[in-house]
C-alpha cells in the first residue's frame, strides 16, 4: 500500500498525535512497508467466514440484579484527598460554584 | 544456604516447619535486590518498608501448613500495568509516570488475600507494547544471563527479576507472547492461561480480545501454585469465565505422560536458528522416551497469524489508548490550552514512539477505506486460525514449538529491522488469537550459553495437560536449575 503525506496527516489527526515533517515522512515509508507486508492476508478466501472479535464464545454477560455496596470508603484516597460523606469533592463547573 | 535461590514450593516447607520465618525469606530477597538490581533495572517501584511490615505481621499471626496457604509470606512482583492501591501504576510510560490507582486489580487482591507479599512493580515495554523491553520510559531492563542482551518483552522486568532470584515469582501480561517470550529469553517458566481464566480487572488493557494475565516462575510446580491462586470467576471482568470448575493445578504434577499425543507444526520450526531447532528436536525425542507419541504436523494458516495479530491488536490498542490524555491522567498543567490542544499535546509528549506506531497502524487498519481489506479480513482469518488449531488439537493433546526462533538478542538490534522482528512472534501469537493456553519452559542452551525456551500449546482450559507435560519434561532434565548468570561473575 502506497501512502501519501496527506494519508499520514489524516491518520495522525484521528490518532490525536502531532507529528513533525520528519516523523510524517518516516511514518509514510514505514506504514507503507508494514501494510504491504500485512497485504498477504488478502489472498485468503474468506467469503463465508464470520469475523471473530473475541476469544470466548460468550455472547453477553449480565450480573444478577442485586444491590451491592458501593466502594465509598476508598482506602488510601490517593487520587483525591477531599471526601465528604463518602463522596469526592471536585471543583465546581458553574460560575456560582466557583467561590 | 541462600534463601532467595529457592523456589516457592521449597521455601514453603521451610516456613511451615518454622525452620525460617517470612521475614528471613524477605530479608534474603531484599539483600539480593540490593546487591544486583542496580545492574538489572527490573523494578520501577520497590516498597521495602511495606513488605517488611507485612512479613512481620505474618510471622506473628501466620496460619500454617493448610491447603490454600501456599503463598503465605512469599515475596513477589507485579508488572507495572496491573493496578495496585499502595504503589503507583505507570505502565512504564511518561503519560502515567505519576499515576496511582485507588484499588487493587483482582489478581493482586487475590494474592494479597492469600498472604503473598508484594515487593514492587516491574518494568515493561511502555504500555506493554514491544518485545525487547527497550521502550520503557524509565530504564532498560537487562537480561541476567548477559547484560548486553535484552530480557525480552513486554514483561521483561517480570522475567528478569524471577530469573535473577530477586523475587520468588511474578505476574506478567501476554497479548501476543509477552509472558512466554521473556520467560524463554531469561530461562524461566511463563504461562499464558486460556482467555477468561484469570480476571483482568485492574489491568491497563492493550488489546482486549487478546490480553491475559499469567505467572512467571522458576519452575513448573511453582507455576501450578501461582495459577491456583490467581484463577477464578470475577464479576468485574466480562470476559471472565463462570460455570467452570477450577481444578487444583498441582494435581496434574508428577503424572505419567505415556500415550500423550504431541504434534510439532513444521511451519513454526522453519525460521528457527539451528541451535533452537536442534533443541526442539532433542526435546521431542525426550518426550518419546517419556512415552509420548510425537509426530510432525502442519499448521497451514501459520504464515497469516503475525499480520492478523498485528492488525487486530493494533486496532484494539488504538481504541484502548484513546482514553489517555492529561485531563484524565493528569501529569502536567496545560491550563491555557483548549481541550483538543491538551489532548494532542499530552499524547504527543506522553507516548513512546513504539506506542504511537501501534496507534497509527490500528487507526489506519480501521479507517473506512481499509476496514474491510485489513481489519475485517484479519478477524475472519482469526476465526479460520482458531478452527484449524481446534482441529489440530483434536488430533493432538498438545502442540510443541520453539517459543522464539532465536535466543535473546542485543540491545538496539530490533529497531533496525522492525518488520522482520514482528515475524519472530509466529509461535506465540496463535494462542492469543485462538484464546488457547500455552506455556514456555527452558529446554536447553545455545552454543553461546543463552537459554532456549520451548512452547507447549493446549486446548481451552487445558492448563492441566500443559503443566503435566511441562513438569514431566522438567523432572527429567535440569535446564531450569541452571543459573549461569552474568551477575555472578
Task: Set down the secondary structure blueprint.
The complex is a heterodimer of chains A (99) and B (489).
Chain A (H helix, E strand, L loop, with lengths): L4 H10 L6 H18 L44 E2 L2 E2 L11
Helix pairs in contact in A: 1-2
Chain B lengths: L7 H9 L5 H19 L2 E4 L1 H14 L13 E5 L26 H8 L3 E6 L33 H8 L5 E6 L5 H7 L2 E4 L19 E6 L2 H11 L30 E5 L8 H16 L3 E5 L4 H19 L18 H12 L2 H14 L5 H24 L2 E5 L10 H4 L1 H5 L6 H6 L3 E8 L5 E7 L5 H13 L14
Parallel strand pairs in B: 2-3, 2-4, 7-8, 7-9
Antiparallel strand pairs in B: 1-3, 4-6, 5-6, 5-10, 9-11, 10-11
Helix pairs in contact in B: 2-3, 5-6, 7-16, 9-11, 9-12
Give a written overview of the molecule.
- The complex is a heterodimer of chains A (99) and B (489).
- Chain A is mainly alpha-helical and 99 residues long.
- Chain A has two helices and two strands.
- A two-stranded antiparallel sheet of chain A has the order 1-2.
- In chain A, a hairpin with a 2-residue loop joins β1 and β2 (87-88).
- In chain A, α1 (5-14) packs across α2.
- The model of chain A has no long low-confidence stretch (mean pLDDT 81).
- Chain B has 489 residues and is α/β, with parallel strands linked by helices.
- Chain B has one domain: Amidase signature (AS) enzymes.
- Chain B has helices at residues 8-16, 22-40, 48-61, 106-113, 156-163, 180-186, 220-230, 274-289, 302-320, 339-350, 353-366, 372-395, 413-416, 418-422, 429-434, 463-475, and strands spanning 43-46, 75-79, 117-122, 169-174, 189-192, 212-217, 261-265, 293-297, 398-402, 438-445, 451-457.
- The longest helix of chain B is centred in the last third of the chain and has 24 residues, at 372-395.
- The two termini of chain B are 19 Å apart.
- At the A-B interface, α1 and α2 of A face α9, α10, α11, α12 and α14 of B.
Descriptive keywords:
heterodimer; A: mainly alpha; Histone, subunit A; two-stranded antiparallel sheet; 2 strands; flat; B: alpha/beta; Amidase signature (AS) enzymes; eleven-stranded mixed sheet; 11 strands
Amino acid at each position: 500500500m502506497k501512502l501519501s503525506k496527506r494519508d499520514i496527516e489524516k491518520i495522525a489527526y484521528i490518532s490525536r498525535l502531532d507529528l513533525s515533517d520528519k516523523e510524517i515522512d518516516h511514518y509514510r515509508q514505514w506504514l507503507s512497508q508494514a501494510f504491504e507486508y500485512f497485504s498477504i492476508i488478502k489472498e485468503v478466501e474468506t467469503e463465508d467466514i464470520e469475523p471473530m472479535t473475541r476469544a470466548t464464545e460468550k455472547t453477553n454477560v449480565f450480573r444478577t440484579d442485586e444491590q451491592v455496596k458501593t466502594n465509598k470508603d476508598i482506602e488510601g484516597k490517593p487520587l483525591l484527598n477531599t471526601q465528604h460523606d463518602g463522596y469526592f469533592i471536585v471543583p465546581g463547573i458553574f460560575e456560582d460554584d466557583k467561590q | 544456604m541462600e534463601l532467595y535461590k529457592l523456589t516457592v514450593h521449597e521455601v514453603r516447607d521451610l516456613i511451615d516447619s518454622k525452620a525460617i520465618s517470612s521475614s528471613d525469606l524477605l530479608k534474603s530477597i531484599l539483600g539480593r535486590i540490593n546487591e544486583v538490581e542496580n545492574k538489572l533495572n527490573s523494578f520501577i517501584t520497590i516498597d521495602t518498608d511495606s513488605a517488611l511490615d507485612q512479613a512481620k505481621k505474618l510471622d506473628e499471626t501466620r496460619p500454617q501448613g493448610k491447603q490454600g496457604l501456599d503463598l503465605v509470606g512469599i515475596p513477589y512482583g507485579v508488572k507495572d500495568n496491573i493496578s495496585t492501591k499502595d504503589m503507583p501504576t505507570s505502565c512504564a510510560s511518561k503519560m502515567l509516570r505519576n499515576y496511582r490507582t485507588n484499588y487493587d486489580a483482582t489478581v493482586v487482591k487475590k494474592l494479597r488475600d492469600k498472604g503473598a507479599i508484594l515487593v514492587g512493580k516491574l518494568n515493561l515495554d511502555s504500555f506493554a507494547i514491544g518485545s525487547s523491553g527497550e521502550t520503557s520510559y524509565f530504564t532498560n531492563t537487562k537480561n541476567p544471563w548477559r547484560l548486553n542482551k535484552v530480557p525480552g518483552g513486554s514483561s521483561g522486568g517480570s522475567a528478569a527479576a524471577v530469573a535473577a532470584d530477586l523475587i520468588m515469582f511474578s505476574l506478567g501480561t501476554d497479548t501476543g507472547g509477552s509472558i512466554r517470550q521473556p520467560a524463554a529469553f531469561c530461562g524461566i517458566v511463563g504461562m499464558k492461561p486460556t482467555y477468561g481464566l484469570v480476571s483482568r480487572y485492574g489491568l491497563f488493557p492493550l488489546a482486549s480480545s487478546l490480553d491475559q494475565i499469567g505467572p512467571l516462575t522458576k519452575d513448573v510446580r511453582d507455576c501450578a501454585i501461582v495459577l491456583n491462586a490467581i484463577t477464578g470467576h470475577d464479576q468485574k471482568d466480562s470476559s471472565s469465565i463462570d460455570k467452570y470448575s477450577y481444578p487444583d493445578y498441582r494435581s496434574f504434577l508428577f503424572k505419567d505422560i505415556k500415550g500423550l499425543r504431541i504434534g510439532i507444526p513444521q511451519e513454526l520450526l522453519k525460521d528457527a536458528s539451528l541451535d533452537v531447532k536442534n533443541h526442539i528436536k532433542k526435546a521431542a525425542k525426550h518426550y518419546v522416551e517419556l512415552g509420548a507419541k510425537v509426530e510432525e504436523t502442519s499448521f497451514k494458516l501459520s504464515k497469516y497469524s503475525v499480520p492478523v495479530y498485528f492488525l487486530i491488536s493494533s486496532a484494539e490498542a488504538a481504541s484502548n489508548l484513546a482514553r489517555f490524555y492529561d485531563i484524565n491522567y493528569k501529569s502536567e498543567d496545560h491550563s491555557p490550552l483548549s481541550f483538543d490542544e491538551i489532548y494532542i499535546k499530552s499524547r504527543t509528549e506522553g507516548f513512546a514512539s513504539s506506542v504511537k506506531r501501534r496507534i497509527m497502524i490500528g487507526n489506519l487498519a480501521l479507517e473506512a477505506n481499509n476496514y474491510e481489506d485489513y481489519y475485517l479480513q484479519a478477524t475472519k482469518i482469526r476465526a479460520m486460525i482458531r478452527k484449524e488449531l481446534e482441529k489440530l488439537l483434536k488430533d493432538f493433546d498438545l502442540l510443541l514449538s520453539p517459543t522464539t526462533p532465536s535466543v535473546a538478542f542485543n540491545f538496539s538490534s530490533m529497531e533496525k529491522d522492525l518488520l522482520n522482528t514482528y515475524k519472530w512472534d509466529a509461535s506465540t501469537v496463535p494462542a492469543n488469537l485462538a484464546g488457547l493456553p500455552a506455556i514456555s519452559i527452558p529446554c536447553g542452551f545455545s552454543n553461546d550459553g543463552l537459554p532456549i525456551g520451548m512452547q507447549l500449546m493446549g486446548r481451552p482450559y487445558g492448563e492441566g495437560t500443559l503443566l503435566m507435560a511441562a513438569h514431566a519434561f522438567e523432572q527429567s532434565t535440569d535446564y531450569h536449575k541452571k543459573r549461569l548468570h552474568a551477575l555472578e561473575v
